[in-house]
Amino acid sequence: MFRIFFISIISLCIFSSCRESVDPEELKVYDGPVNAATNIFLVHSDSAIVRSEITAPRQLEFQNGNLEFPEGIEIKFFTVEGLLETTMRADRGFFNKEANLYRGEGNVQIQNLIKDQRLQTEEIFWNQAEKKIYTEKFVTIQERQTLFNGTGMEADDSFSTYKLKKVRDSRTILPGEGI
């Protein structure tokens, strides 16, 4: 009798102490989007005057407040009088909440409609607080009938004044050419 009781206790201990091993990958904290939205339309105003509009087909919001626009982003800048002055488009967009900084990447196109200036690059940053756009990537700028190529650029957020950092070359545009 004692023997059966002892074997039962040992068997119970052996079977109850066994458990499945847990895969560490399953224990990772989720860091993906906590919110998703479609057909985004954001308006930034200053003293009841519209300064910019942001549109995007899709927006992902993360726990830390950062945003991602995986299907592209378009930002429009307006003059104090309310005229559309500049458009900025990118294949993908990101907003870093901590730095209050937007970043566009992919095929980035900026156009100042009033001054007839265009910019093309693969990455651009917009510091909304400082009202500046900038990049350290290769840039092509078309100003009327002249193309400028360089690496690195700083401009006001309306792209009406800019500084090209490392100019590589410039040339007159041939008929049918441009960015």
UniProtKB/TrEMBL annotation:
InterPro entries: LipoPS_assembly_LptC-rel, LptC. It holds the Pfam family LptC. One of its GO terms (cellular component) is plasma membrane. One of its GO terms (molecular function) is lipopolysaccharide transmembrane transporter activity. It comes from the Bacteria. This is LPS export ABC transporter periplasmic protein LptC. It comes from Algoriphagus lacus. The gene is lptC.
